[in-house]
Write a structure and sequence with these properties.
Layout lengths: L2 H13 L8 E6 L9 E14 L6 E12 L9 H16 L5 E4 L6 H5 L31 H20 L6 E4 L3 H14 L1
Parallel strand pairs: 3-4
Antiparallel strand pairs: 1-2, 2-3, 2-5
Helix pairs in contact: 4-5
Bound molecules: coenzyme A (COA).
Length: 194
C-alpha cells in the first residue's frame, strides 16, 4: 500500500460513526517538554460488552479496544511501549469508570501486555480454517443483505446472544456485543477502497 493510500484509509476510518466525535483516541508517549513521539497506540472507545458474574444479572459495560501499539524501530527495547501501556491501563480504567473491560488483539503474544499494564489473557485464540472445496449440505441459500437489513439482523442477534449469555455459569464471563456501527465501518472502508 502506498503512503497516500494508507493516509486515505485513515481519513475514511475517521468518517465512520464508530469513530466520529471521540470514538477513537490516538495516544502518543513523549518525554515532556519534548514532543518527539516515543511510542503510540490508539483506543476505540465505543465498544460494548456484557459481564456475567455468577448469581448476578448480566450487566452491559463499556469496552475499550486497544490497537496499533507501535514504537519506531530506532527507539525499541527502551521500555517505551511498556510505559505507554502502563499509563494507558490507568486511563482506560478512568474512561470506563472501572466498570468495563478492554480488549487487545496481540500478535506478540499475551505475556508482554500482562506484565505491562495488567491485561489478563482470556485463553488461546483459535483459528477455524474451512477449505474452499468443502461442500456444506442442508444450508440455506445465501441471500445478499442490504446494510439496513443487516442492522435489523444484528439487533435480533444481540437479543438472542444476551439470552444465551444470561444462563448462569460458575465463573465470571465477558462477551462483546456486536454493533451495527462496526459493520458500517467495515462496509464504508471496503466500499470506498475499491
Ligand atoms: C512490540 C513493540 C510495540 C514493543 O515496543 P518497545 O517500545 O520496544 O517495547 P519495550 O521496550 O517496552 O519492550 C521490549 C520487549 O518487547 C519484546 N518484543 C518486541 N517485539 C516482540 C515480538 N514481536 N514478540 C514478542 N515480544 C516482542 C522484546 O523482546 C522486549 O522484551 P524484554 O523486555 O523481555 O527484553 C515494538 O517492537 C513494535 O512497534 N513492533 C512492531 C509493531 C507491533 O508488533 N506491535 C504490537 C502489536 S500487538
Amino acid at each position: 500500500m502506498t503512503l497516500e493510500a494508507y493516509i486515505e484509509c485513515g481519513r475514511l476510518e475517521l468518517q465512520s460513526p464508530l469513530f466520529l466525535d471521540g470514538g477513537i483516541t490516538f495516544w502518543t508517549l513523549v518525554d515532556s517538554p519534548s514532543t518527539t513521539p516515543l511510542s503510540a497506540c490508539e483506543t476505540i472507545n465505543r465498544k460494548k460488552g456484557w459481564v456475567k458474574v455468577p448469581g448476578r444479572p448480566v450487566e452491559e459495560v463499556p469496552v475499550i479496544g486497544i490497537a496499533s501499539v507501535f514504537t519506531p524501530a530506532t527507539r525499541r527495547n527502551k521500555g517505551y511501549a511498556a510505559a505507554l501501556m502502563q499509563l494507558l491501563s490507568k486511563k482506560v480504567h478512568a474512561m470506563t469508570g472501572g466498570r468495563g473491560f478492554s480488549v487487545l488483539f496481540s500478535n506478540i503474544g499475551p505475556c508482554y501486555y500482562a506484565v505491562n499494564g495488567g491485561w489478563i489473557t482470556s485463553g488461546e485464540a483459535s483459528q477455524l480454517i474451512i477449505p474452499i472445496t468443502k461442500t456444506f449440505m442442508d444450508t440455506v441459500a445465501p441471500e445478499l443483505l442490504q446494510l439496513k437489513q443487516a442492522e435489523e439482523y444484528i439487533n435480533k442477534d444481540v437479543k438472542t446472544l444476551e439470552k444465551e449469555f444470561a444462563a448462569d455459569s460458575n465463573i465470571t464471563t465477558v462477551r462483546m456485543i456486536p454493533q451495527y456501527s462496526e459493520l458500517l465501518y467495515n462496509g464504508l472502508y471496503f466500499a470506498k477502497l475499491k
